[in-house]
Amino acid sequence: MKKILKIVFVVLLLGFIVIQFINRPDKTTTTDITPGHITKVMTVPANVESILKRSCYDCHSDHTVWPWYTSIAPASWLVGDDVTKGRKKMNFSQWDKIPAAKREARLNEICEQIKAEEMPLPPYLILHGDAKLSQADKDILCQWVEIELKKLEDANPE
Ligand code: HEC
What we know:
By secondary structure, the chain is mainly alpha-helical. The protein has one domain. 59% of the residues lie in helices and 0% in strands. The chain has helices at residues 2-19, 38-41, 46-55, 57-60, 75-89, 100-115, 122-127, 135-155. Heme C (HEC) binds next to helix 4, helix 5 and helix 6. The site of heme C has 19 residues, from helix 4, helix 5 and helix 6.
């Protein structure tokens, strides 16, 4: 019996080692603020920026912080996937790449998603308690969204 346990343990350990080499996420990150960054393209007050930074940048910007456990599979796969999908959907570092026609919808969604507690992704909050949005944070973001939407509308009256 002891021998079987030993074999099982060794097989699991080898399996764990092998998966470390599979599908490693591309852990890119930068502190560069490119000309297409949301803070360059729109007016982002400091209090709004600090909320976005604290609660959204890990998945929706190129400024992702990759903690040690994101180097270890299978956690690395889950986090890598969230970041890839999050950036693809909306990347604050490349706000200029969002077609003008879609920016209004994206802004609207920001307020909707946070009000519905869909964002930040709930599993993320387990390890990032500080990213949880207070009611005040939500109000600040939604008021900012309103202001920016109004600007877009004034610039493109229908
Ligand atoms: C842990 C990663 C993570 C964090 C943190 C995060 N998001 Fe997301 N977000 C995602 C992923 C992944 C998607 C894409 C979901 C999909 O395609 O189904 C997404 C999608 C979105 C969308 C598009 C929703 C849609 O239906 O099209 C908005 C808007 C959004 N997030 C806003 C935010 C805001 C605002 C924050 C910060 C308050 C935030 N997210 C924090 C991962 C994250």
